[in-house]
Write a structure and sequence with these properties.
Layout: H1 9-15, E1 28-35, E2 38-45, E3 48-54, E4 59-65, E5 72-78, E6 82-90, E7 93-100, E8 111-118, E9 121-127
Antiparallel strand pairs: 1-2, 2-3, 3-4, 5-6, 6-7, 7-8, 8-9
């Protein structure tokens, strides 16, 4: 169902600014999703969320977001089951990590993954190797609510 369209993730990463590897200090991983040989994850430390994409040895893209920064948004909505997502914005690109509960009554399996948008155009959509949930409730982090224009569903 979820397929990658247009450029590869690697090409998209090359367009983004290179950033250092995971920040030092105590951080809690609240989402971690294996996508091929890379991982898309979010850590929480000192009131800020950090989106990481890369290999275990090297982050290819890192975006730090706080509620005040205006570059991180959350959304909860119902599809077949509840769907939760975090969107990190960098220039004209958005990186949405999502977890959607399944609903066996309608034949919908749980899924999670990464959607990449340029503006509001979906340019990549990759599923996690196995279903991943957010480890903390997103609504308790004070992150602004996103609009329907940026839904991963």
């Amino acid at each position: 169902m979820k397929t990658m369209i247009l450029p590869t993730l690697g090409a998209l990463i090359a367009l983004a600014l290179a950033s250092p590897a995971h920040a030092e200090g105590k951080s809690k991983t609240i989402f971690s999703c294996a996508i091929g040989k890379r991982t898309a994850s979010v850590t929480l430390a000192d009131g800020q969320l950090t989106y990481h994409f890369g290999t275990r040895a090297h982050d290819e893209l890192t975006i730090v977001g706080t509620p005040a920064s205006g570059n991180v948004f959350q959304m909860a909505q119902r599809y077949a089951g509840m769907e939760y997502q975090l969107r990190f914005k960098s220039d004209d690109y958005s990186y949405i990590l999502y977890a959607a509960e399944g609903n066996p009554q309608v034949g919908a399996a749980a899924n999670s993954g990464l959607v990449i948008l340029q503006g509001t155009d979906r340019i990549a959509d990759r599923s996690c190797a196995k279903f991943t949930e957010f480890a903390v409730p997103l609504d308790g982090l004070g992150i602004p609510e996103d609009t329907e224009d940026y839904s991963a569903m």
